[in-house]
Amino acid sequence: MTGELAEPVPVGVGPDPRVAVVVITHQRRDELLLALSRLRSLPEQPRVVVVDNGSTDGTADAVRTRHPWVELIASPENLGAVGRNVGVARLDTPYVAFCDDDTWWEPGSLRTAADVFDAHPRLAVATARILVEPGGTEDPIVAELRDSPVVGAGWLPGPALGSFLAGASVLRREAFTEAGGFSERLWLGGEEELMAGDLAARGWELCYLPQLTVHHQASTARDPHRRRADGIRNTLWTTWLRRPFRPALRRTLHLLRTVPRDRVTARGLLQAVRGLPWVLRERRVLPPHAEARFAALEQAQRSSTARRYVS
């Protein structure tokens, strides 16, 4: 009736327009459809952009038919992590949650993230607690996030991080854009480390936020050997793109001593060597405050049981 006041919506209830979700996928139609159903049921009702990285299994058609509410970008080629850049470019929300086709966000986590970002304007990335499904047990990486040795700003709402896990993180869109998004050269596999360094260099903070939860049921539709080779290559490229000479040499030697001695490793090392000309051309050493974050992680990286180059 004209003149009547609408009843106020309780705090924490209803759609939250502050956070959108970007999902990248490749050849995982059924898993993606399930992930989208879970996103659709979230109380925050986020805007969702799906970037299909050149799938040939009918993914795009299935999304159009089963989830017409989703904004679909059907790339003719596999863009890797750069697909996230394409998705973010579609958005105008202040915050963006990334999601893989085999992960899903706990109801309420996106709203909590938005509240935390609102309260901390220099926070660029918040990484969630990861529960492995089925079973709901904590991923081994969670302990490393919780016990991070990185020293950050005193105002941080959780432990400071030197890097992050894209598929389990919410980012401030402004910071993501300022850092230039994910590198086309790195494609996929440890691509977050380079961005994390560039964010820190610009004065942004990253943290682990245990109030956020992501569930992960690892897909069996993957190429573990390619992921390992690309991971080795990207670790070396990131190291020599951003670290000072001695720390870069130290990390390189440690990696060479500890990776499996097989054809997969040889492929990753060969790719890294082939990229040396552009790495040296684009090398830009991090300022001391950003380098200190990577230096703090060296011991944890050596002893980590959650981050190993195996396949």
CATH class designation of the largest domain: Alpha Beta
Contiguous runs where pLDDT drops below 50 for at least 5 residues: 1-11
Main beta sheet: strand number and arrangement?
A: 9 strands, mixed
Number of strands: 9
Number of domains: 2
From the coordinates shown, what is the CATH architecture of the largest domain? Alpha-Beta Complex
Provide the structure class: alpha/beta
- Beta-strand residue fraction: 15-25%
Distance between the termini: 65 Å
Query: Percentage of helical residues?
Result: 40-55%
What would the CATH topology of the largest domain be?
Spore Coat Polysaccharide Biosynthesis Protein SpsA, Chain A
Helical run tally: 12
Average pLDDT, rounded to a whole number, is 93
Q: Estimate the global geometry from the Cα principal axes.
A: globular
Order of helices and strands: EHEHEHEEHEEHEHHEHHHHH
Query: Could you name the CATH homologous superfamily of the largest domain?
Result: Spore Coat Polysaccharide Biosynthesis Protein SpsA, Chain A
Question: How large, in whole angstroms, is the Cα Rg?
Answer: 20 Å
Description:
With 311 residues, the chain is an alpha/beta fold. It contains twelve helices and nine strands. The chain has helices at residues 29-40, 59-66, 82-89, 109-119, 141-146, 173-178, 192-201, 224-242, 245-258, 263-274, 276-282, 288-303, and strands at residues 19-25, 47-53, 71-75, 95-100, 103-105, 123-132, 137-138, 169-172, 205-216. Strands 1, 2, 3, 4, 5, 6, 7, 8 and 9 form a nine-stranded mixed beta sheet that branches. The model is unreliable at 1-11 (pLDDT under 50).
